């Protein structure tokens, strides 16, 4: 006997609370599902994360996007911790600003700065500017052994996407890409790369400088510095000389 669209066998039970939402897929995410919109029934007090994991069971190819997909609930950006209510609309989509050459990513892997920069290069662009922020050994007279970066993943990706969209409004640029490392970084390893392409170099330089300041101000990523004699979480700063 069928449980109905989106109902998981673990959700059975006459006393279980039910929340039914409408899921919309856009962009490349639309191509890996067989039904759009998709009605999804959830038990208990669900979040976007609960819904997404249930959707992966139904549409396994969604897993190939990793952590790059963005979410919106009732037409407002949401994180995986956002609560869902009955009749909510959940939208799932890849980063959208500026077209397919814009990208916003978190990774625990080593970042290839040149590879990131090449992803924003187009024939109509006369300049590409890249910022390579890396783990330095000395900070205010203290020797750093290594760094640890921690991110609130879903919200960080959503905020990077917002930052990218605003960069397009502020500057005459073609594309922007941001890749930020998380986890443990050894001295000299790249922590963040921001690459901007534009028809003219001035806009690319200005957008890149603005983007690193805005990223440090609004994107929920935290840095801990580990010293030989202690450790500390770094106080947020908008000083662009501090990656």
The outline comes out as globular
- Category by helix and strand content: alpha+beta
CATH domain class of the largest domain: Alpha Beta
Number of strands: 14
**Main beta-sheet strand count, sense and barrel state:** 5 strands, mixed
Distance between the termini: 57 Å
CATH superfamily of the largest domain: Molybdopterin biosynthesis MoaE subunit
Query: Which strand-content bin applies to the residues?
Result: 25-35%
Mean pLDDT: 85
Unreliable stretches covering 5 or more consecutive residues: 7-15
CATH architecture label of the largest domain: Alpha-Beta Complex
Rg, rounded, reads 21 Å
CATH topological fold name of the largest domain:
Aldehyde Oxidoreductase, domain 3
Cross-sheet strand order for the largest sheet: 2-1-5-3-4
Q: Which percent range fits the helix content? A: 10-25%
Q: Secondary-structure element sequence?
A: EEHEEEEHEEEHEEEHEE
Counted by DSSP, the helix tally is 4
Number of domains: 2
